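Exercise 7.
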Amino acid sequence: MQSADQTAPVTRDDARTGNAAVIAPYAVIVMGVSGTGKSTLGAALAGRLGCDFLEGDAFHTPHSVEKMRAGHPLDDNDRWPWLDRIAEELQKSAETKGAAVAACSALKRAYRERLSRASGMPLLFVFLATGDRTELARRLGGRSGHYMPTSLLASQLDTLEPPAADECALTLDAELPSGQQCAVALDWLRRQTG
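Solution. The predicted structure, written as tokens, is:
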């Protein structure tokens, strides 16, 4: 379930290898539905890259958090400003450290395009994919203190548009051990960033 054949969005020629590489600053978005392990992988990648990790959930408004806690899915009107806040913080962080990593569902292509435009820099997506609804529900049910109820998982899966072949994205199996996910993602990121 791993694919990394996509081309980076903004590139320079790398004289050493002849490959194209993403121009810094750049950001990595670990994406997927709730319960796939975005935060775990995102924090690990940021630690290895020596940059900031942004938890996308922290950028929701209190209204959106209460809406989800009550079992109501967010709509685009809730998501657009949330995506803009994430993009703004990614830009600030990457400008300072050369890179930044965020966990963000980024369920639709339009959301990923919005993040790219609003951040004004190259974004690389790591998509944690799984078809095991039972495992996702188990993970969501086991989280304490989180506002996302298991009942919203179906709406996220229905909304999800996996990255297309023309998007700069790596697809990883969410069931892989987190250390293996991190190693594969780091290798792909190094090839993308030269």
